[in-house]
Amino acid sequence: MALLEVNNLYGGYESHEVLKGIDFKIDSARLVGIIGANGCGKTTLLKNLSGYFKPWQGNVNIAQENILAMNIRKRAKTVGYVPQNIPCDFSFTCYDLVMMGRAPYLGRFQREGELDRETVMNSMTLTHTWEFRNRFINELSTGERQRVYIARALAQQPKILLLDEPVSHLDIKYQVEVLNLLKELTCQGILVLVVLHDINLASQFCDEIMIMKDGTVLCRGTSAEVLLVQNISHAFSVDVKILDNPLTRTPYIVPVINKPKEL
Amino acid sequence: MRASRRTFFIMSILLLFFSAILAVSCGAVRIPPQEIFNIIAGKSNVTSRIILVSLRLPRVLEAGIVGAGLSVVGAAFQGLFRNPMADPYVLGVSSGAAFGATIAIILGLGMFGTGLAAFITAIVTISIVYIIARTGTKVSMTAMLLCGIAISAFLSAFISLMMLLNHNELSRIVFWTMGSFSLISWNQVYYSAPIISVGAILMYVYARDLNAIMTGEEIAEHLGINTELVKKVILVAGSLITATAVSIGGIIGFVGLIVPHIARLLVGSDNRILIPFCAVSGAAFLMLADTLSRIVLSPSEIPIGIITAAFGGPFFLYLLIKAKTKYEGM
Prior knowledge:
Order of helices and strands of chain B: HHHHHEEHHHHHHHHH
Helix content of chain A: 25-40%
Number of strands of chain B: 2
CATH topology of chain B: ABC transporter involved in vitamin B12 uptake, BtuC
Distance between the termini of chain A: 62 Å
CATH architecture of chain B: Orthogonal Bundle
Strand content of chain A: 25-35%
Strand content of chain B: under 5%
Largest sheet of chain B: 2 strands, antiparallel
Structural class of chain A: alpha/beta
Structural class of chain B: mainly alpha
Order of helices and strands of chain A: EEEHEEHEHHHEHEHEEHHEE
Strand order of the largest sheet of chain A: 6-7-8-3-9-10
Shape of chain B: globular
Oligomer: heterodimer
Largest interface: A-B, 34 and 28 residues
Strand order of the largest sheet of chain B: 1-2
Number of strands of chain A: 12
Helix content of chain B: over 70%
Largest sheet of chain A: 6 strands, mixed
Shape of chain A: globular
CATH class of chain B: Mainly Alpha
Number of domains of chain B: 1
């Protein structure tokens, strides 16, 4: 049974077509890194997977149920989403913010119960944010905030978690921390799809890599299978050399820089 | 954390209670608190009883209802527009109401006619703003803010022109636009209380969804919240409350902007606590402001808008300076 199945997906904004026929199928929980040049449709793909955008054609099925056939609350219980820019110009405590993740489970006049508090505590413990539960979100560093938002998505108890460039603004310590966390989540049975800019981080951490090019999936597989010179140079239009990461035995990409001509 | 929120809430209810007593007893004829209890017990002279029941009480209650309504709308609009500058008048309700009221005053339609005209033009104005800002089934909050500002400016031009051409009504128009509760009777309380309380309760019911929308509209949708529905409920309830408040008290500035910020500094951003807290403290604030407007230059009255700005502004600045945590205005 496929956990996530995307069939012949076309979509975009207004009259601008971004996704041009995407097909893939993922059977079990794992960490999938999505890479590709700017504007190739990574974010649009995530928004179609989450049901926020309506595909023009084709469909997205999660655990064999069409995402658009679900109501908005069911969808929120199925897919968690962490956007690229997380707003933080308000003073909610981290605990209250994570508790918002329980919204799809609560009726309009229902108060949070023991189960909700327990789920929030678990998601905050897992993301190592429990210690900031009483602090305001605007007092935290970017990396800490990112983890709080991941905790909120986890409180939704989703089958699939989508993250749009969660580590782009983080220093190397937090990058490693967040990616390690995502890896841990896959052990909880959650399929994690993450858009990454850093190919080497993707290579090192992800179970599987999907390279996108002009609204289509160029290739998908383990890092050793897809991180090849011809794929990278085709997707990003750049010359690269591929080395071997001595620690993880995964491909390590370095760009080939043409020396500036001597004057 | 939670305990201190409860303390503030109890304190605000006590403040409301004392404000009400103070407001009822102060005025051209002083009715000391002792006398108020005598009146309630039914053993007092007829004059003070009439002053209390048919003059003071409706006026004080109305100030409280309007203060609660405007503060709740201010808090909800600031959250909805994710803009700390937002207030109940931001969508052009005030200019719309002033436009109708100005015409009514010039035509000599009387108190009731002026209120009704203000209510109708306020609702028409906000509907125009909504229709212009809507694209398909979605409403952009930024587009609404900009439309509100543009239509406000447009209507203000006509109001100024009408004022210029009708010198003899100038002071009445100016007095109306600065707000006053001087001519309130029970009739206004009877129709405004249900509208404003239903509107405020609706906002409270959607407080949790509003919290999520404050953290981003798109992200709220990913939390399973029908953001378009929530926006519509808040906009409709907010517009009805504001139009009702304006049609009764005129354009009382500042209360809908400053009370939510003061409340947020004390109890935080969570709308489930903020909205009831704003209702209670906004009511107390406007009751006190109305009392001051009666006694500062007694026996004549000054517009309540002058009091709200003159006392509310410095108090807010004081809290802002004293605030321990960084206050982002949201």
